[in-house]
Design goal:
The protein has about 400 residues and is of the alpha/beta class. The chain folds into two domains: about 230 residues, Uncharacterised protein PF07075, DUF1343 (Rossmann fold, 3-Layer(aba) Sandwich); about 140 residues, Aspartate Aminotransferase, domain 1. It has 15 helices and twelve strands. Helix 6 packs across helix 7. Keywords: Signal. This is DUF1343 domain-containing protein. One of its GO terms (molecular function) is peptidoglycan beta-N-acetylmuramidase activity.
Length: about 400
Amino acid sequence: MKFYAFFSALLIASATLPALTPALTEPQSMQRKAPVTGADQTAKYLPYLKGKRVGMLVNQTSTIGNKLSVDSLQSLGVKIVKVFGPEHGFRGNASNGAKVDDAVDAKTGIPIISLYGKHHKPSKEDMADVDLMIFDVQDVGCRFYTYINTLQYVMEACAENGKELMILDRPNPNGFCVDGPILEDHLRSGIGRHRIPITHGMTIGEFAQMLNGEGWLANKAQCKLKIIKVANYTHDTPYVLPVPPSPNLNTPQSILLYPSLCPFEGTIVSQGRGTHFPFTVLGAPALKGKYAFSFKPVSIPGMSETPLHQNNDCYGLDLREYNTSTFYQTRQINLKWLIELYNAYPEKEKFFDMSFSKQMGNFDKLAGTENLKKQIMAGTPEAEIRKSWEPGLSNYKKMRQKYLLYK
């Protein structure tokens, strides 16, 4: 629980976040109103759930007030027949990429069906006794964050079995940023399924509308949606998550750095997995002598059991105090760190070579293009790299407008 206590302290410390930059300053009336998640607006959907057998795709971020939504809704008389768990499990304590088994929730007695174990999509049998599905998971707005894949699988299962999906929408903490190369078709994978940029700039509710509208569900199926919108929210509203969305995104700093640092998972550089401050540092043993700052990844159950460079000192960048208001001002992911560390690395042929790395990702699949790696290796200026993302990025932004629920 110490991570959550630390996160709560940071939440209090971040109370002045809306004043980060004049470009995102809200009207005074809006500043007095914090975003209210869809889940917290129970009056808008409790009557609709009456008499229905409900399935819920939820995890530890699925809260109503300070209680898990499953516990709250069950206490309010909602008949929850199944809970479906995504990556990291229903309680959010499984490591990244770890398989999660089916179980029975000890507190409620509700069966838990894992969608990150034997199968990723609810089966016909799973859906047989469900009248309505609820999707309530906190996303962080990145193409390679797997919850949007889980959303698609659930939508497909609902469409195929004639079930309605209710989405209790939540703010996107990176919703102000739409940036990065568009995913190339031949690089589709479990960490990128659609032609979207690294940061897609949408909430789960908006992304669900895009999946329907663009015909991206299997067989171009259409899922019947009921979206409970976030109140007092725009994409420019800074939002500090009250609960860590996954074990290795345990601070507000890590969530804002994640879009820029996750591509390093396709390199020989550690992003701090195996420390208590993942996705806020970058380093590798071979950078000793180039940087003074160092950290040592170790095995941490529930976070990173076998991190890259385990038990070795890594030298590089400490970004824990990096001023993340830069992201709000530029609305761009940071490429400078990737370029800098590649140029500093003494054995450049090993930098992107996955045979030298234990990482989960593949750089081209994380980037969504083979060009970015080639451009960095060739010394292409950042401005030219960004120019190469067009017209794909601008076309995506135009398409995205059709599905926005918030300004």
